[in-house]
Amino acid sequence: MNHDLLTILTVFVVITGLAALAAAILLAVMARRFFQLSQRADGLLSVLETRLPPLLGEAQAVLSETRARVRQIGEHLTVFSQLARKQAERADDLLADIADRVKLQVIRLDDLVGDVMTRVEQTLDSLQNLLLRPLKDFGALVNGFRTGLDFFVRRRSSPPAKTQQDEEMFI
Q1: Alpha-carbon torsion angle 141, 145, 148, 149, nearest 10
Q2: pLDDT tens-digit profile of 21-60?
Q3: DSSP per residue over 137-165, as a string?
Q4: 151 contacts 157 by C-beta, under 8 angstroms
Q5: pLDDT in tens, 107-121
């Protein structure tokens, strides 16, 4: 039994040695890969260290210039909005003034048209009185003359003529 135990222990020692050897080989391969990655990273860092400062400087200059331009644009927009607001207020005031003046002129025009219409009516009434009254008077004179002639010619006034005369006088 001693012999079997010794064989088993030997097998375990050999397996353990092989496992340690495999771990050592794996660690050596990993160390070599890390070394290669480290060299590549160092190369990239050196490239970045040479190229990055000028790029960062240019980026900072562009940002500074852009910031100044954005501020200037903001100031211009502020001034423009203030001017636009003032112009809108002026336009509103002007339109309100124009509307008030138009209303006043419409009222004046309405009054003027009303006065003209009143004067035209008065003038037409005066013309009617001036023209129609003499015509009525002339018609009455003609009727009177006709009645007088009729009376002298017939020596009497006829009742039918008088009725006709009353009707004509009424018209």
Answers
A1: -170
A2: 999 999 999 999 999 999 998 888 888 788 878 878 888 8
A3: HHHHHHHHHHHHHHHHHHSS--HHHHHHH
A4: yes
A5: 999 999 999 999 989
Provide φ and ψ at 164, rounded to 5°: -65, -40
Question: What is the identity of the amino acid at 138?
Answer: F
Q: Where are the beta strands (DSSP E) in the chain?
A: none
- In the structure encoding, which two tokens stand for residue 67, read together? 């910031």
**Token representation of residue 90:** 């002026």
For the chain, helix (H) and strand (E) counts, in that order, are 2, 0
Asked if residues 150 and 158 have their Cβ atoms less than 8 Å apart, the reply is: yes
CB 157 within 8 A of CB 147: yes
What 50-54 contacts at long range (C-beta under 8 Å, 24+ apart), as own/partner pairs, is: none
**What is the full DSSP assignment across 53-80?**
HHHHHHHHHHHHHHHHHHHHHHHHHHHH
